[in-house]
Every structure is written in C-alpha cells, then in structure tokens.
Specification:
- This protein is α+β, with helices and mostly antiparallel strands.
- It folds into two domains: 64 residues, Orthogonal Bundle (Arc Repressor Mutant, subunit A), CATH 1.10.10; 162 residues, 3-Layer(aba) Sandwich (Chorismate lyase), CATH 3.40.1410.10.
- It is 28% helix and 29% strand.
- The strands form three sheets. The chain has a six-stranded antiparallel β-sheet with strand order 4-5-6-9-8-7. It has a two-stranded antiparallel ribbon with strand order 1-2. The chain has a two-stranded parallel sheet with strand order 3-10.
- Strand 1 and strand 2 form a beta hairpin.
- Helix 1 crosses helix 3 and helix 2 packs across helix 3.
- It is elongated and about 70 Å long.
Length: 264
C-alpha cells in the first residue's frame, strides 16, 4: 500500500517557506477533509507543526485569505472559506438573476424602493437624457442561497406609470427585471458596456451587506442598449468582494499585427 509523503517544509528548495506553507495548508485541508467553515489550526500550532516562524505563517495565511481560500474572524481564528460565487454576467447581456439561477442558485431580492425619480447628472448621462428626466429607479438588496451578496440600483429609461405599476406587480423579489421588460414591454437589452472597480464599503452600505466598514467591495456600472442603440437601463451594483468571483472569456483581437511588433 502506497504511503503519502509527509507534509513538511523542504529546506533544500529555493521556494520561499511561506509559498511552501501555502501549498501544505491546501494539502492539509484536502487530506483532512476540512469543509467550508471548519477552523484551521492556530498560528502557534502551524509554527510547531511545520517548524517555521510566525512571520512565515502569517504571510502564508494572509495570501490564502486574499486568494479567497481562507477567511479570518477577529477573536475566533482562521476558517476554510466557502467557494466564491462565480459570475459571468460582466461579459454578457444576462442580468444577475438569470446568471445565478442558470447555475442552480436561489436568488432573492429585497426590493427597498421602486418609484419614478428625476435623473441626476450621472444617470442622465448614462441614459442619454436631459437631467431631471423622469425614470424608474429600482433599489434592491440581493441574496444568493440565503446570503446577502450585493446592493444594486437600476434605472429604467422610461417615465411610464403603467410600466411602473407592472413592475410593482411583478414580484421582483424572485423575478428577473430584464425578463419583465423583455416579455411585457419589448424592451430587450442587446448590447452594453460594463465597468468594474475596487471600492470600500462604508456606513449604510457596509451595514446592508453585513460586513465591516472599510472592507472591500466590487463596484460595477452598466448601461444596456436595445437593438437600435437606445439606452434601456443603467445600473450600479456593489458586490461583497469576499463572496464574489467575476469571470470572463477573452479572445485575441483579429486585427492584423502591427509592424511595430512583427519581430518581437
């Protein structure tokens, strides 16, 4: 019967100790069958087990926390992290609801407000309308598998009270906004532009997302257009960075290579 090689730091390798320790911790999680939420040994226990300094342990754990494999809870220890929610709607016209539900997740949205509002400068620019033009604002707190993951604001380019009434009756807590717009009002998003940047949660946003003030969030902006190029919707979303992993496919540009790079 084959025996698994002992898990230990190799002193004869040029790989930094903290990098080796990261791999050993991942192996330990696998060999011991640790599950998301299970507590990892303390820093002192890891120092003793692998005969390394506390600095090495902290560097390794810090990297694994940043990579989403572990998470820390102040005063409680370090735990195996739950897998992050994979989202690909950044690269398609699918909305958050459709992207998550097609992956088998349960999505529920707490509708905080839904009303006609005057477009401020940023919303007006995104929708290509004059400032103070009436549009429909939908504010939601979104949960996946019973866990709050995002706070969103959507602005629909319409002042129709009939559309507003329809949206209010549509049970948007468990229904896709995009599906209602497309099926009931022939407002189909065919193309758009989405941008992503890192930000920090503060004040009310942190409280809504159940995270500490100053913790990172992924901020997303998007403008969706119909087949004629008219802006249909503008949205802003703040996603918990500790629970979100955005993925996108890329392809090489088909343009002919520039002569500046022909010999590189």
């Amino acid at each position: 019967m084959a025996h698994r090689a002992p898990l230990s730091i190799r002193r004869d390798m040029p790989v930094p100790y903290y990098e080796q320790l990261k791999r050993l911790i991942v192996q330990q999680i696998d060999t011991e069958g640790l599950q998301p939420g299970d507590l990892l040994p303390s820093e002192i226990e890891l120092c003793d087990r692998y005969d390394v300094s506390r600095t090495v342990v902290r560097q390794a754990i810090g990297d694994l926390v940043n990579e989403g494999l572990l998470h820390r809870m102040r005063g409680k220890g370090t735990f195996v992290a739950r897998p992050k929610l994979r989202e690909q709607f950044i690269e398609s016209t699918l909305g958050f609801f459709e992207d998550m539900t097609t992956r088998g997740h349960k999505v529920v949205s707490d509708v905080l407000s839904l009303d006609l509002v005057e477009a401020g400068s940023k919303v007006a620019e995104a929708l290509s309308v004059p400032e103070k033009t009436l549009c429909i604002e939908l504010v939601r707190l979104r949960s996946v598998n019973d866990e709050t993951v995002a706070f969103t604001k959507s602005y629909v380019n319409s002042s129709s009270k009939e559309l507003l009434a329809d949206l209010r009756q549509a049970e948007l807590s468990t229904t896709s906004l995009y599906r209602v717009l497309e099926d009931n009002w022939e407002m189909r998003i065919e193309s758009g532009h989405r941008s992503l940047e890192a930000s920090k949660a503060k004040g009310m946003l942190a409280r809504l997302l159940h995270i500490r003030s100053g913790e990172p969030v992924l901020y997303i902006e998007s403008v969706g257009h119909d087949g004629n190029g008219k802006a249909v919707e503008y949205f802003q979303a703040w996603h918990r960075a500790d629970r979100t992993r955005l993925e996108m496919n890329v392809v090489r540009d088909r343009r002919p290579a520039s002569t500046d790079f022909m010999h590189r």
